[in-house]
Amino acid sequence: xxxxxxxxxxxxxxxxxxxxxxxxxxxxxxxxxxxxxxxxxxxxxxxxxxxx
Length: 52
Fold this sequence. Notes:
This protein is an alpha+beta fold. The protein contains three helices and three strands; from the N terminus they run ααβββα.
């Protein structure tokens, strides 16, 4: 469930590329259980890994 929503959110990251901004690795912090790759540069990051 979260993965589909996160994929929807990262499609906005491409707007930064169009603005001539350097884009590195990115991620969406959410309640997903595990660190998961969405594509070659973006991840779902569990909030538990950030606050523990």
